[in-house]
Amino acid sequence: MNFYDIDKRVLEASQKAMELCADKLSEIEDIQGYNQIKMIKAFQNAGVRESYFSASTGYGYDDFGRDALDRVYAFAFDAEDALVRHNFVSGTHALTVALFGVLRPNDTMLSVTGMPYDTIRSAIGIEGSYPGSLKDFNINFEMTELLPDGTLDYAQIQKDIEAKKPKMVYIQRSRGYSTRATLTWREIKKICDISKKASPKSIIMLDNCYGEFIDKVEPLSVGVDIMAGSLIKNAGGGIAPTGGYIAGKKELVEMCAYRLTTPGTGKEIGATLGNNRELFMGAYHAPHVTGEALKTAVFASALFEILGYETSPKYNENRGDIIQLVMLGNEEKLCKFCEGIQAGSAVDSFVVPVPSDMPGYESKVIMAAGAFTLGSSIELSADAPLREPYAVWMQGGLNFHGGKLGVMLAANKVLNS
After folding, report:
1. Cβ burial, residue 399 (10 Å; 0-12/13-18/19+)
2. Entry pTM
3. Separation CA 302–CA 14 (nearest Å)
């Protein structure tokens, strides 16, 4: 650490933090090992070979690499089928394709985890008046509110599902810009059990962004029917340059494929344009990289708790995603935290992040990310809207050593602000 002028108090607190979270770090390494071996088995089952990395053009007929990549992710996620494509431009795009692939006019989508994340609201039609939203197609949106303490209201979820018999029960795993706890597979299973009993025909869809490879249990094995996410988060291992996935029951994935391309062609077309190699490499590295991001989050939680800040999750709690929330209390400390994360990056470390307006967000947002891939939040990054309670949402870290440094520099900035 002699390359950086880090306050002695931060160095001492960091050593204590490592001692505090030693057991949790060991637990994460066990999960890393399990999921990495499972991923290797996924590659072997799919018969991955060097020729699958070749580019296809035009319609992309008979792109065996593209088809094998779908099989890799299907096995890794315990899915019947998967749709993994570089031309999903974001996680929100993958989610939107899944929503439009499954829902039809006059269907009801019931979000049982409160208000969905900012960027998906315009696709649903909750905010704004953009043409082409679900609302524009007369698809109804309903919502089960969270309890005042931010936890799930299971009793009301059951009542709402029984009363509305929605076409889709929608679960958002991650907290978004809220302070509610992220859902582990255990909470997801409880929702699925309630839904299957209250309305067996309802399709259970999960926004799985930030939640891939967090545990040994995948949501599709505990009752989720279909889920979607981004390849520049956990699932792409920090190598996929763009893209997203949809995974789940075969007939539902097929419906989504018909939405992505055209009815009748579905998964059979789509040129890969030379992206296969990076997508396969990203899949291979994803379990390990996700574990490194988890370790970074655990360390951050322990360090800032020692320094007197409220954190969520606590360093020793079970986790449902890679995101770490730190309550900083005011705008200045929030901005200083982001400056520290940026200063710890290998790319654009000299940049000072400033709050600005962002498409899809109501408040000004500050974002710190010195990333090899623009917007990649499996790489160490932090962001927050400038509004109460002035909490920062930190995620990522391609390796724990770099992630730990970034967190310490963030602590150094906050402590000396």
Report:
1. middle
2. 0.95
3. 8
Tokens standing for 143? 């919502």
Query: Measuring CA to CA, which residue among 363, 346, 383 is closest to residue 118?
Result: 363
Integer Cα distance of 216 and 147 in angstroms: 29
CA distances from 252 to 101, 303, 342 (A): 8, 43, 40
- 36 vs 78, 240, 278, 378, CA distance in Å? 14, 17, 17, 17
Length of the chain: 417
Token digits of residue 90: 């974001």
Longest Cα–Cα distance in the chain: 64
DSSP state of 361: -
Q: What is the pLDDT of residues 152-171, one digit of tens each?
A: 999 999 999 999 999 999 99
> What's the CA gap between 146 and 287, in Å, rounded?
31
Look-up of token digits 């792109």: 63
Task: Say if residues 137 and 173 touch (Cβ distance below 8 Å).
Answer: no
**Run of H or E including 110:** strand 108-111
Cβ count near 104 (within 10 Å) = 10
Any idea what the Cα angle at residue 328 is, between residues 91 and 396, rounded to 5°?
A: 35
| Best CA proximity match to 55, nearest among 277, 330, 327, 239 | 277
pLDDT band at 22 (very low <50, low <70, confident <90, very high): very high
Q: What pLDDT score does 240 carry?
A: 98
Task: For residue 308, count CB atoms less than 10 angstroms from its CB and return exposed for 0-12, middle for 13-18, buried for 19 or more.
Answer: exposed
Q: Is the dihedral of CA 209, 226, 170, 130 positive or negative?
A: positive
pLDDT in tens, 261-313: 999 999 999 999 999 999 999 999 999 999 999 999 999 999 999 999 999 99
Contact 82, 235 (CB under 8 A): no
